[in-house]
């Protein structure tokens, strides 16, 4: 688990863009006609430093605010954008103006009416520097201004075309809040969030305690295609914070709660075979959990060393050892559920120690020292894996052991949040790890685009591989200019092949979101950012 | 576990059978070998991860099985003795030193000095021992060293009180009066005649508290305030194995048994020494 504090924020910033609604559960509960009523008690791992997702970058704030706020549009499975608070929209031919027609008869929990002025107030507040938005503002960095055309029509202008704009609007971070709550000191708006969502929370969020929601009885405006087209089935939801995975699991199995988020792999395996409980789980689209080599300096600047590291370590075995089959081994730069995934490259992600050793010999690391590590000109082949979590994970321990087999020393550097960011910006590391949930192959550019290398001038950005290969950058440009999805995916497939040939990333496992629940909890489905969709969950009585 | 740092006050004297003492000595001998020269017990590197042999149950190759990273648990338990026992020993040693110095000072500095020192000791005593260690770890960073310091600080007041009382008792004895009467200088009398005769009980107390210290140091490692991974340490091994308990029992049971046996042996021996000491002095 990630440590809270600075790293949590950094980590989340790096985890960046995620989309909103959609996705399916793979372990559906018992079927039947939904029943109204009941209180769902849930234990979750993380709490946000601020509930307001317009301010907070954390996944926890998105999770806890989603039941409270609706968005203009919804992003469903396959990345499709569907109407929600906006019933339709028109994009100008220069892709700079979006005109939204808003749903009528929508009310905020405080009684205020949802209208064009409310949309403008929300977007203006997000980009206002005084709001100190740590994610929402960067999601709509292309935003220029909003104009109220009439009560139910708003025109949004962008500074430059941005194909991710609608996806951004679909996130809880751009969820629409009551205008009355958007004024004043943003720091005073961290406990309660008032939106138009299927649930309300009068007391809001309290650190260490959690948050309670009650049903919004008037709710009649879910996203198009929602399974439940009216008010939520649940009377109430009570969410408590339990950072310890074992404590959460114990709370579930002893009946203290009905459901838990972030089930640990061992617990997940156990839960799946326990009567009366169901493990709900769905894969993330986007980029697998991966190690990212610093391709700009150090040993990994050499493509041969990178390729040897990828081929010479038995990543699937490590994944199986650590995650007991709950997460599958990664077979590409993208996860298989990501639109535009190129499955033809899977055979390149194989385990081949002989080839790895041959490559390392060829790279000049042909001699070994007394401890069995390879050397070149008397210098040991050492790579520094930098992170800011406390302790060393089992995964890191096993990667270290795997690398040693091919004579590469991996040094674990546990840094405090400040030092971590400082060295990230300077590029003073050899390896770094992250995953990245995203609805489409555009995420490749976020993590490997030359314009996204973290530097002191630019600040935190996601190209931690510091990758600049011109051919791949050209593919990214071609994808953005593509006229249709087919040619766009073709450009991204070219990029995937070149990135694979170049070993610019070491994909390890395909992340999944997990939600363990008793079998009384029905109709569990996931939003694209991993939170369960509480609007459609119902409890057997 | 949380009360581990409270000054032990055995309420009942149990006469320990000779076999029990012999068993305790055997256990402590093995632990001492493991702590000082683990290489004599196992030739396996405790940090060598065999990715093809994770979570193996105990067998002839791995007497205690392997952990989730394929590391040999027998080697880790053997090598873990060093960190676990040395923190306990180090903390007890430091606390003894501090307790003797501070206790003697309190007894020797007259009414005001005694009052000030004793009240300060009361303040430290009022803080729960493990809380004090958390404080030290928060200020100085978590490591085996800070755990040692923190545990020692929490134990000094208990020792100092006993030393102070003993110094006052010994000082009133006739041979000390005689030494003064012979014209020996004050500090010399304190160092040569008073202190050596006053520290006996606190040494006996220290052996009993050593067991509590070992438990406390394991507790600290359990919550991540001990030596840094991948260093093998019993408490940290318990913590790492906890999540796997439903899948594999051996990663928690063996370090747990090691802690239990060691503490039991130290306590048995401590009580025996205390009883012998009391028979001798009373």
Automatic annotation (TrEMBL), chain A:
Keyword hit for Cell membrane: no
Chief place where the protein resides: membrane
Pfam family, one: SBP_bac_5
Upper lineage: Bacteria, Bacillati, Actinomycetota, Actinomycetes, Pseudonocardiales
Record bears the keyword Transport: yes
Cell location: Cell membrane
Organism: Actinokineospora auranticolor
Protein name listed in UniProt: Peptide/nickel transport system substrate-binding protein
UniProt topology in membrane: Lipid-anchor
UniProtKB/TrEMBL annotation, chain B:
Keywords: Cell membrane, Membrane, Transmembrane, Transmembrane helix, Transport
Record flagged with keyword Ligase: no
Membrane topology: Multi-pass membrane protein
Location of this chain's protein in the cell: Cell membrane
GO biological process, one term: transmembrane transport
Chain segments annotated as transmembrane: 21-41, 81-107, 119-139, 145-163, 202-227, 247-270
Major localization listed first in the record, in broad terms: membrane
One CC-aspect GO term: plasma membrane
ABC transmembrane type-1 domain span: 81-270
Presence of keyword Transport: yes
One Pfam family linked to the record: BPD_transp_1
Family from the record: Belongs to the binding-protein-dependent transport system permease family.
PANTHER family listed in its UniProt record: OLIGOPEPTIDE TRANSPORT SYSTEM PERMEASE PROTEIN APPC, PEPTIDE ABC TRANSPORTER PERMEASE PROTEIN
Protein name: Peptide/nickel transport system permease protein
Organism, as annotated: Actinokineospora auranticolor
């Amino acid at each position: 688990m990630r440590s809270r504090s600075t790293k949590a924020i950094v980590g989340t910033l790096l985890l960046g863009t995620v989309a909103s609604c959609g996705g399916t559960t793979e372990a559906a509960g018992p079927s039947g006609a939904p029943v109204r009523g009941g209180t769902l008690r849930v234990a979750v791992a993380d709490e946000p430093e601020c509930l307001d997702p317009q301010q907070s970058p954390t996944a926890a704030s998105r999770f806890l605010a989603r039941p409270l706020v609706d968005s203009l549009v919804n992003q469903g499975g396959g990345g499709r954008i569907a109407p929600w608070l906006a019933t339709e929209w028109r994009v100008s031919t220069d892709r700079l103006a979006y005109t939204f027609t808003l749903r009528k008869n929508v009310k905020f929990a405080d009684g205020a009416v949802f209208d064009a002025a409310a949309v403008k107030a929300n977007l203006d507040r997000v980009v206002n520097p005084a709001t100190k938005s740590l994610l929402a503002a960067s999601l709509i960095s292309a935003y220029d201004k909003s104009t109220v055309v009439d009560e139910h029509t708003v025109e949004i202008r962008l500074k430059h075309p941005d194909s991710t704009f609608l996806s951004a609007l679909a996130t809880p971070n751009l969820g629409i809040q009551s205008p009355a709550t958007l004024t004043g000191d943003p720091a005073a708006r961290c406990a309660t969030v008032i939106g138009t969502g299927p649930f309300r929370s009068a007391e809001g969020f309290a650190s260490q305690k959690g948050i309670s929601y009650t049903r919004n009885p008037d709710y009649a405006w879910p996203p198009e295609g929602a399974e439940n087209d009216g008010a939520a089935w649940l009377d109430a939801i009570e969410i408590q914070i339990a950072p310890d995975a074992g404590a959460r699991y114990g709370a579930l199995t002893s009946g203290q709660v009905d459901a838990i988020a972030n089930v640990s792999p061992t617990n997940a395996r156990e839960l799946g075979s326990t009567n009366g409980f169901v493990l709900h789980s769905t894969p993330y689209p986007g980029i697998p959990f991966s190690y990212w080599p610093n391709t700009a300096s150090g040993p990994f600047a050499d493509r041969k060393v990178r390729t040897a590291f990828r081929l010479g370590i038995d990543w699937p075995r490590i994944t199986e050892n650590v995650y007991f089959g709950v997460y599958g081994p990664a077979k590409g730069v993208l996860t298989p559920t990501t639109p535009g995934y190129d499955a033809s490259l899977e055979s390149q992600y194989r385990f081949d120690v002989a080839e790895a050793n041959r490559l390392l010999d060829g790279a000049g690391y042909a001699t070994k020292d007394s401890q069995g590590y390879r050397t070149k000109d008397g210098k040991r082949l050492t790579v520094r894996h930098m992170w800011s979590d406390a302790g060393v994970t089992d995964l890191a321990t096993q990667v270290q052991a795997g690398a040693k087999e091919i004579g590469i020393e991996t040094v674990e550097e546990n840094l405090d949040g400040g030092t971590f960011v400082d060295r990230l910006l300077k590029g003073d590391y050899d390896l770094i790890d992250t995953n990245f949930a995203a609805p489409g192959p555009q995420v490749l550019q976020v993590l490997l685009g030359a314009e996204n290398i973290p530097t002191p001038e630019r600040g935190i950005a996601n190209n931690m591989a510091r990758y600049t290969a011109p051919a791949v950058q050209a593919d990214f440009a071609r994808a953005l200019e593509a006229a249709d999805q087919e040619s766009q995916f073709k450009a991204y497939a070219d990029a995937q092949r070149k990135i694979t040939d170049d070993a610019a990333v070491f994909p390890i496992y395909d992340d999944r979101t997990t939600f363990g629940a008793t079998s009384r909890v029905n109709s569990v489905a996931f939003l694209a950012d991993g939170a369960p969709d509480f609007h459609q969950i119902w409890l057997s009585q | 576990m949380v009360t581990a740092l409270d000054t032990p006050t055995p309420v009942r004297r149990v006469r320990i059978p000779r076999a029990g003492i012999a068993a305790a000595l055997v256990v402590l001998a093995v632990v001492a070998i493991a702590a000082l020269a683990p290489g004599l017990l196992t030739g396996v590197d405790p940090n060598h991860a065999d990715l093809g042999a994770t979570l193996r149950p105990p067998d002839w190759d791995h007497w205690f099985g392997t952990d989730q990273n394929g590391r040999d648990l027998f080697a880790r338990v053997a090598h873990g003795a060093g960190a676990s026992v040395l923190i306990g020993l180090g903390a007890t040693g430091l606390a003894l030193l501090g307790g003797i110095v501070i206790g003697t000072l309190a007894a020797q500095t007259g009414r005001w000095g005694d009052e000030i020192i004793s009240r300060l000791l009361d303040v430290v005593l009022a803080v729960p021992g493990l809380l004090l260690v958390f404080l030290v770890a928060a200020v100085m960073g978590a490591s085996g060293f800070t755990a040692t310091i923190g545990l020692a600080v929490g134990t000094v007041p208990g020792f100092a009180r006993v030393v102070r009382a003993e110094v006052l008792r010994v000082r009133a004895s006739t041979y000390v009066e005689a030494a003064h009467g012979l014209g020996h200088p004050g500090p010399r009398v304190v160092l040569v005649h008073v202190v050596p005769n006053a520290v006996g009980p606190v040494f006996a107390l220290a052996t009993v508290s050593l067991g509590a210290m070992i438990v406390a140091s394991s507790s600290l490692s359990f919550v991540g305030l001990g030596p840094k991974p991948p260093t093998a340490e019993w408490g940290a091994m318990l913590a790492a194995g906890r999540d796997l308990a439903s899948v594999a029992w051996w990663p928690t049971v063996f370090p747990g048994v090691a802690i239990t046996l060691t503490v039991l042996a130290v306590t048995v021996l401590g009580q025996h020494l205390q009883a012998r000491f009391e028979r001798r002095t009373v």
